[in-house]
Amino acid sequence: MRVAVLPGTPDAAPALALLDAYATKHRARLMLVDAHGEHAARQLEDGRIDALIGHFSKVSPWMADISLSKAVAHPEPDDSQQPVLRIARRNGENALILATDRAVAAAAR
Amino acid sequence: MSLHGGIPRAIAADVRHGERLEYWTLGWMASVVLVMWLVMGASQAMKAAVIEDLLSLVPAFVFLLSVHWERRGPNTRFPFGYRRANSLAFLVAATALLSVGGFLAYESVSTLIRQEHPTVGGITLFGQTIWLGWLMIAALAYSVVPPIILGRMKQPVAERIKDKVLHTDALMQKADWQTGLAGIAGIIGIGIGWWWADATAALFISLSIIKDAIGALQQAVAELLDGTPRALDSNALSDDAKQLKATLKARFGDVEIRLRETGRYIAAEADCAPPAAIPTAAELMGDDLAWRLASLSFRPEPVKANP
Q1: Which chain A residues are closer than 8 Å to B129 by Cβ?
Q2: What's the confidence (pLDDT) of residue A64?
Q3: What fold does the segment set B239-298 form as a domain?
Q4: pLDDT class for B298, splitting at 50, 70, 90?
């Protein structure tokens, strides 16, 4: 499972742990891929990576092109413009999206 | 009721029934729009379904408006009354139906061309994260029920009061429940990984809606251009108009007879001198449909048009 962490995401560990658990459950392993900025989002859209970890706001301009999870390891901020740690998934990857949504919600509980 | 305004007593109860059905339609469909909006998430297909449901309110709204105007009597500014409001409402309703079909076709084709993979994630309710698709299916199932019931109830009323707006609204309700079922098939398709299922089902349904809408639009334009009255469900001449023409010819000989429709009413014109005893509407149309004949004019010296 190819995962990229955006630069400037020092708190990516909880999201990585969550994706690692998902990969292990499906007998896969996590492979970190280098990706930066817009290029990373394009790689995700094209299916060259499976998930992207970074700080995104709830109203990110990328929202239409990729599927963002709820805030990971943080409560959802009141200000929708404030970027927080989230996992971005490729649109249409519904099994991964649902599984990570469930895991994020379980971690929040 | 005057010659150019008001609802004839023979159909007053049915028209009121039609109005009640349209009020129910506005209420139920508003609740459908609300439920769909609550669960649509980021799904483009659900957004399209909400827009389609909003557009589907147009025929019900214009029917109520046209009946309201039909009840008004003629005045100095509108000496022939407002009965043609029904013809105008019919054009608006047919255009709304065409817009729904066109919008659905555009959405489906663009989804298939761009190979958009719809995203349906999870939603946390009462501490449990469930697949949003289940809520969408429940909302779509709810959206199917009112149009099936109301559409079926409207058809016989539309036939009795010869109301093409109400008939078009029944077609719109058919479009609503069909797109609802296509939406359910589409969400199930997304669940099993068939991203194209939703758009393909919607495309086939949009073609059927467009076919109905074009038929309705042809009738609406014919009515506004003073064409011979058309049947409720096709562009063919209506049976009662053909019957009236035959009856008038039998009475007045082989003279030119012209019929046109103003809303639900027929106006007849015969190129001959007025007879000593003018036949009543009941004699020409029969007791049940006598209300349909709003006027009968005689033109002893037809004016030749300039070539």
Answers
A1: 98, 101-102, 105-106
A2: 72
A3: GMP Synthetase; Chain A, domain 3 (3.30.300)
A4: very high
